[in-house]
Write a sequence for this structure.
């Protein structure tokens, strides 16, 4: 009986936390969507620019994995190398 109660309590706490986490995640996605909409509109940027950013970010991530055959553990230098 005590084990069942503890398990039920755990499930309730888990549900509560997952609900709160999902609310924060949805709010953050919405806030970022609004921010990026204003940035692109008022700076007269094309939405195609985000595809370019994606390719630059992907290249930075893949280049930081190996440099001349040696693995690199720190990615902070990739921004300064541009």
């Amino acid at each position: 009986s005590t084990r069942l109660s503890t398990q039920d309590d755990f499930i309730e706490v888990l549900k509560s936390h997952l609900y709160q986490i999902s609310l924060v995640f949805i709010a953050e996605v919405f806030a970022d969507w609004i921010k990026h909409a204003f940035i692109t509109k008022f700076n007269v940027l094309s939405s195609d620019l985000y595809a370019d950013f994606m390719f630059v970010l992907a290249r930075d991530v893949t280049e930081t994995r190996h440099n001349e055959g040696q693995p690199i553990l720190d990615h902070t230098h990739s921004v300064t190398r541009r």
User: Anything to note?
Assistant: The beta strands are 66-67, 70-71. The mean pLDDT is 81.
